Each structure stands twice: as C-alpha cells, then as structure tokens.
Amino acid sequence: MTMVVDVAIERGVGGLDRLWSYLPGPLDGVSPKIGYRVAVPLGRASATGIILAERDVDAAEFSDLKTVSRVLDDHPALTPALASLALWMSERYLCFIGQTVRAMIPPGVRQGLAGRAPEPMRWQAGVAPSARAHRQQEIFQWLVEHVGSTKEEVLAAFPHSEGPWLQLRKSQGAKPMGPPELAPIPSGPELNSEQARAVQTLSQGTGRWLLEGVTGSGKTEVYLDCIAAELDQGRQALVMVPEIALTPQTVSRFQLRFGQRVAVWHSGLSAGERVSTWNGVRQGIYQVVVGVRSAVFLPFPQLGLMVLDEEHETTYKQDEHPRYHAREVAEERARLEGAQLILGSATPSLETAYRARKGEIGWLTLTKRANQRSLPHVSAVDMRKELKQGNHEMFSRRLMEAITEALSRHQQVILFLNRRGYATYIFCRDCGQALRCPHCEVTLTYHQESNRISCHYCFFEGSPPPRCPACDSPRIRYFGAGTERVVEAVARIWPQARVLRADRDSLSGRASHERLWKTFSSHGADILVGTQMIAKGMDWPMVTLVGILAADVALNFPDFRSSERTFQLLVQAAGRAGRGEAPGQVVVQTYNPEHYAIRYALEANYEGFFQEEIGFRQQAGYPPFSQLWLLEVRSPELKRAAAGAQEVASMIRSVLLDDVQILGPAPAPLARVRQHYRFHVLLKATLPASGALRQVAEMLRDRSDVQITVDPYFML
Ligand code: ADP
Ligand code: ZN
Ligand code: ZN
C-alpha cells in the first residue's frame, strides 16, 4: 500500500474534469497534503491544481502514476473541510471541479500572492501636517483627541479619506503605537424571554435551525449572543447576509460587540483586501466575518457557528457557474465541520419553513417585536377604484393624506416601487408596440435625468427615438411609473419635502449607499423613494409611514415563486415602518387586493400564507415537492437554438422515467440576450429522482451550447 493524492486541475474542463492521482513525493520542503496548491505534470505540460483527497492504493494501481512536481505555497488554500465541500458541490450542482475550486479561493490567493495578514495597529498624532492639507489637518486634530485609534476607526470617522490618511502616516503625522488590546466582549441588552429561550436551546448542541422571527423581533441579538459563546470556546463564527443588507448599520452592530475581531467580506473589496482578509481568517485573527454568499468559503480554522440571515433571499443563489445556493453549501459545511447553522428570517423560504414544520431541522420562533413596539398597521387600497373615482395620480387618496400627516409631524416616509427609471417603457399609441432592446427581447427603460433609454439585461444604451421604429408614428409616449417619476410627483405635490432616491441607478457602490444611509438616518431628507431591495435590513426609527406603490409588480413575474416573492417583499417592506417610538403605518396599493399573497401580507400572517402556498406547490408538483432542473440551449442563430433544444428534449425523453416531467422546449421569457437566442427545457422530478437526472447530465456533458441549472431561481 502507498499513499496517493487526488488533484483537481484548476483549468480542467471537459475531459480534464475529474480528479487526477499523483504520488506525493519525495519533495523538498512542504509535503503535499489536502488543500495545498501544487504543480503537476499533465500530458506533456504542467498544470496547477489543488489536492482534494488522499488515499491508500495497492501497487498495481500506482505503478504508472506521475509525481507531484512542486507544492506552490507554504500553507493550504483549502481546509480539509473545504476540500470535501468542493467535491460535494461539483456533484450537487453538476459543475466542473476546477471551476468549483476556482470559485472557492480568491484570485489573489490562487495566484500565490499569499500576502501577510493585516496587523491591527493603534495610532497617535505625531508631527502636525501643513496647514494647506485640510483633510490631513482634520484627521490629525481628531487623532490628538482619540489617541490609540485604529485605522478602521479613523476611516469610520472620515469616510473616503484613505488617501489623506496614508499621506498623514507617510509624513509622520500619525505614529504607530502597537497592536490594540482586544477589548473584552461586552454583553448585549438583556434578552426577552423568547430570545433567551432561543439562545438557551441553541447553546445546547449543534444542529440546523430555523429562527423564524417577525421583523424587529431581535434575531440579530440572538445571533450576537450565540457568537459570543462560540468565541468563548475558541471557535469562529460566520454571519452571512444578502449583499444588499450588508450596510454600515449591520456591520457596526457586530463591530460594537466584537471590535477588531470582525472582518467584512463583500464584492466591493479590492483584490489585495481579499487576500489579507482571507489570510486573517485563516490565521484566526478575524474570528467573526460578516459577509455575502461567497464568505461561505472562507478558511476558518475551527468554525463553530454559521448564521444565514434573511435566508429566503434569492441572492444566496449564484447565477453563474458554479450555480450554488449558499444555504445548502452552508448546511453541508456545517455538517463537515460539526458546526451549528442558524437560518434566520421573518418570511422563510417555503423550502426551509416546510423542513422546520416536518421536524427535519430545529424550529425556533420569535413572535413579538423585541422592544415592545407593535407591528405597524397595514392596509390595502384598491387602485382600480381610485381610477374609477377619478384619481389619476400614482398615489391613492389614503396614501396622500398619510404622507401629508407624517410630514406635518416631522416624521419620515419611505415609498417603495420595484421599478427603476422614469417610465418602464416607451409605447406607441398607434401600433401598440413597446420599444425593445435590439439585442434582447425585453422592453427598454426610459431614464428621464439623462433622457436616455437603456436595457437592464445587456446594458445597451441610446436616445429615445422621435418616431416609432415599427410604424413610424410620432405618437409614442412614456408609459408606467418608475422611481424617477415618483420623485417628480412628490416634488409637485409636496414641494416643501426633501426627497432622496435610492435605486441601482442612483446608488453605485458602497460609498453612495453609505451616504444615503447617513443622510436619511440624520433626517437629512423627509421622503425616501426607492426600490424595495435597497432599504432591506435598514433600521430607521423616524420612519412612521411606508407606502408600497405597486404591490403587484412581483406578482406578474413568470415564476412559480412569484407569490412567495410578493409576500416576502411586502412583509419586509412593512417591517421598515414604526421601528421607533411613534407607531408605524403601511399603505399597500394594489390592483389585486384579493390575491392571497397580498391578503396574508397585510396581516403579516406567515403561517396562513405558508399553508395556502404549500398546498399549491404540492398540487402543482413544485419544490419542495420536486426538484427542478433548467436546461438552457443558446445560439446566436435562432434556428440552431430551436433545433438544439428539440434535440436535447427528445434525447432526454428517450432515457427518462415516468417520475420526471419534461416541460418545453420553449423560448425563454427573455428570448434573446446578448445576441444569443435562448430556449428552455425544464425538468421536474418527483423526489428522489437523482439517478435519472444524473444520466441526463452525463448525456449533455459535452454539449457546450447547453447549460444546466440545478434548482433554478432565475428563470427569465
Ligand atoms: P431583527 O434582526 O429580528 O430584525 P433586531 O435584532 O434588529 O431584530 O432588533 C430590533 C430592534 O430591537 C433593534 O433596535 C435592537 O437593538 C432592539 N432589541 C433587540 N433585542 C432587544 C432586547 N432584548 N432589549 C432591548 N432592545 C432589543
Ligand atoms: Zn408604432
Ligand atoms: Zn439588451
């Protein structure tokens, strides 16, 4: 018997997509072990890979194996648990193992730029900077008053001042004092009885839990106490949040409790920041990470707890290879590490809620808002009636009255509209055609500020044409309301109100996000107009009124989760109201007041919604009662895409059993994107049917025009 190592080739696609066995040595220096990056001979060339497994084989098997050429780093790139996780992921999501490994390790680390872990340092004021450098002067003065601050604290006080700070350091205006002492972890507020019971239960052992708590019920305080207990035991904790919820406010709650132990992980980090954070985690300098979905791959030496906050958010599903869902990956990692997993939400995904109710995972509930505040009063307005009664504004009379009243009391208002831009589309009154993107089959969005039209899928941009491209009529007009038009209407009706707009067009990057949060928090504006995605997780106590202008937008999506999404969006948006001392009110405008997703959302009745929706899912055979696979066939030529899809569908028909239903092929709802025609075939398998599905995957392995998404969330 001798030991061999199994290596995933980093660039291995197609035929190279498997593990390759090598003899480990003898080599000088570090010996090749699980998780290390290595150079190996492959055919006549050399390739880079990662060792994912070790095993003992007998002589017959290893006789013609080659030997690892070199170990590339002095530390592993994956912990043993992460190496196993990589294998699990490529099985689960049918993706190349090399691709999976690439997604798990930041590019800088893969390029061998291991870098040093950041050493937190305390600073004091040194030589005064020249009077002309104003920002440096300001920072210098601040340092005089805040001796012993860290760089992070300086930059928190002076956002976007990295440049002046570096200059100040270079000119000796700031002098190092040595590493900060890690302050002892302070205790949080005294927990109420529901919270205390949750923490008590969670402390009794590891497992998987749903923490179902209404908005503002104090879930975060539960996480904080559980994390403190893990740190006490010398283990680390990971808190995952949807990208949009990774606000300065969220992060500061963790920093207040755990100080320098906290690192943040998100898409806005530079390559260098990624490397140093990754190293700091690997070396146990950062014991708590607050991050987005890819944080699930950080190399914690001894991970004790994972929290997935807002677990229902679809941003946890990655929309490109490898198409993983962070909830499932976290669950598998928790299993591999023997760690605890807490899934938190006020509106859990149907899948998670169902498992909790069946007893497959633990179930904890928080039923009241933590600080004795009551849930806001929510009411619906039927917009069909408004129109009949002659109100052509985008605001119902009830909402207008409520806004006027809130403004007169100097309270803040949030108006949500899930649509960007000024008008959703430009529309011809003669031929009825909407203006479409020349590259994708979707309507173009008109942006008033820039007087431009743009495609939100391929980012095509242009000026609005004076005449209809289809029939040459000059009678084309703007149709539908976007956030920009709401702002305009607000300015017309309430000229005294100070208005902020928050959507993906007005907010680019974290800096503008932070500015928005600060401005609105300090009551620098009265009304915030935004898409619902933006204000998620924000806690603004001065907001007493939330208006949801068009509750139906999400209902009209061609997706079996559209009711679930609508319910979740409405409840989460309503959760922004009345978080302070004054009671909150929510007005929901809708053309479908009798739809069950809207009815239950008005009552914040999750259980009622769940029961009705789960019945529908069972009847229609949708998840969690089935597994879906989306096959997408693409081609620049319409004919080839259509024929390819037909071919794939009949190929599958020839092998599949009765328990797999084949839907399609059909043109995708977005029939053409980035010059490619797209066809969809949807496979719906009653559980468990993984054997049959695996056969399909094998068959389609070499077709580069077909992409398979296991458990699709984005089916446009
Ligand atoms: P969730 O995460 O469920 O939305 P949070 O943890 O953000 O709820 O709590 C909502 C508000 O209630 C926050 O301002 C928080 O500081 C406060 N809070 C939570 N738990 C307590 C408690 N036990 N005592 C006092 N205030 C609390
Ligand atoms: Zn026309
Ligand atoms: Zn386009």
Structure description:
- The chain has 716 residues and is of the alpha/beta class.
- It has five domains: 2-105, GIY-YIG endonuclease; 122-178; 193-247 and 259-265 and 287-370, Rossmann fold; 377-420 and 482-615, Rossmann fold, CATH 3.40.50.300; 626-710, 2-Layer Sandwich (Alpha-Beta Plaits).
- The chain contains 22 helices and 30 strands.
- The radius of gyration is 28 Å and the shape is globular.
- The two termini are 53 Å apart.
- Residues 428, 430-431, 433, 468, 470-471, 473 line the site of one zinc ion.
Which descriptors apply to this entry?
32% helix; single chain; GIY-YIG endonuclease; Rossmann fold; 30 strands; binds adenosine-5'-diphosphate; 6-stranded parallel sheet
Quick description:
The protein has 22 helices and 30 strands. With 716 residues, the protein is of the alpha/beta class.
Secondary structure elements and their pairing?
Blueprint: E1 2-9, E2 19-22, E3 37-42, E4 45-57, H1 59-62, E5 70-71, H2 80-92, H3 97-104, H4 107-110, E6 122-125, H5 134-145, E7 149-150, H6 151-157, H7 162-170, E8 174-178, H8 193-202, E9 208-213, H9 219-232, E10 236-240, H10 248-258, E11 262-265, H11 271-282, E12 288-291, E13 303-309, H12 326-337, E14 340-345, H13 350-358, E15 362-366, E16 377-382, H14 383-388, H15 397-408, E17 412-416, E18 425-428, E19 445-447, E20 452-454, E21 461-462, E22 476-479, H16 483-493, E23 499-502, H17 509-521, E24 527-530, E25 543-548, H18 562-574, E26 585-590, H19 596-602, H20 606-620, E27 626-635, H21 638-655, E28 660-673, E29 676-686, H22 690-700, E30 706-710
Parallel strand pairs: 9-14, 9-15, 10-12, 10-13, 11-12, 13-14, 16-26, 17-24, 17-25, 23-24, 25-26
Antiparallel strand pairs: 1-2, 1-4, 3-4, 3-5, 6-7, 6-8, 18-22, 19-20, 20-21, 27-29, 27-30, 28-29
Helix pairs in contact: 2-3, 2-12, 5-7, 8-9, 18-19, 19-20, 21-22
The chain binds adenosine-5'-diphosphate and zinc ion (ZN) (2 copies).
